[in-house]
């Protein structure tokens, strides 16, 4: 049993489309620093300066921002899919890659995929 629940190194290794079962993650937007990446002297708006965020499992790495927490169209803004967390909750573990966007979570114009809502995965039917 591994009690190192807070594995900073491993937490983003999970590939896109893999189920994550933790509840606490490093904040994607500030990369765990707690400081807003665009304005150095204010606390990160996503995690309120905590450097960590809570997401109820099961979850997946946000495909739209690649876990970075930043908007694909404007890197100064937090990702609209995961709200900057870098991780998004999914309904259940029974997921598969979204074929519409090929797991990228994006449509051609850079907007979140309408089918998977930017998660890159959909619930299996
Ligand atoms: Zn943050
Ligand atoms: Zn995102
Ligand atoms: Zn999709």
Note down, in words, how this protein is organized.
This protein is mainly β and 125 residues long. 0% of the residues lie in helices and 14% in strands. It contains no helices and six strands. It has strands spanning 24-26, 52-54, 59-61, 87-89, 95-97, 121-123. The strands form three sheets. Strands 1-2 form a two-stranded antiparallel ribbon. The chain has a two-stranded antiparallel sheet with strand order 3-4. A two-stranded antiparallel sheet has the order 5-6. The chain is flat. Mean pLDDT is 87; it is low at 1-13. Bound molecules: zinc ion (ZN) (3 copies).
Radius of gyration using CA atoms only: 14 Å
How does the major sheet shape up? Answer: 2 strands, antiparallel
Look at the helices and sheets and give the structural class. Answer: mainly beta
Gross morphology is flat
Average residue-wise pLDDT: 87
Give the cofactors and ligands. zinc ion
Total count of helical runs of at least 4 residues:
0
Tell me the distance between the termini.
Answer: 33 Å
Helicity, in percent? under 10%
Percent of residues in beta strands: 5-15%
SSE series: EEEEEE
Number of strands: 6
Residue stretches low in confidence (pLDDT < 50, at least 5 long) are 1-13
Q: Which sequence of strands runs across the widest sheet? A: 1-2
């Amino acid at each position: 049993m591994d009690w190192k629940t807070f594995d900073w190194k491993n937490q983003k290794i999970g590939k896109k489309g893999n189920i994550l079962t933790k509840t606490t993650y490093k904040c994607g937007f500030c990369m765990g620093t707690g400081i807003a990446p665009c304005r150095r002297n204010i606390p990160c708006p996503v995690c309120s300066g905590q450097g960590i965020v809570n997401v109820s499992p099961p979850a997946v790495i946000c495909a739209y921002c690649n876990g970075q927490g930043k908007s694909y169209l404007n890197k100064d803004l937090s990702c609209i899919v995961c709200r900057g967390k870098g991780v998004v909750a999914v309904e259940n573990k029974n997921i598969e890659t979204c074929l519409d966007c090929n797991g990228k979570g994006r449509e051609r114009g850079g907007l979140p995929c309408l089918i998977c809502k930017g998660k890159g995965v959909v619930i299996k039917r």
